[in-house]
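Hi support team,

I submitted a single chain yesterday and got back a structure, but I'm not sure I'm reading the token output correctly. Could someone confirm the output below corresponds to the sequence I sent? I've pasted both exactly as they appear in my results page.

Thanks,
R.
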Amino acid sequence: MTLIQKRLIILAIIIIVGIVLGRLAVRGFLNFLLGGTMFGGNIL
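Hi R., thanks for writing in. Yes, this is the structure output for that exact sequence:
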């Protein structure tokens, strides 16, 4: 594997992780605004 291929693979992994974390952050923020719990279920 060349250096460019390694860079592209690492970049793709970073992008995927960023999308997943971004969606979780948005979901958590909306749940916080709506007073819900993060992954369903009741804490109290």
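A quick pointer for reading it: The radius of gyration is 17 Å. Let us know if anything else looks off.

Best,
Support desk
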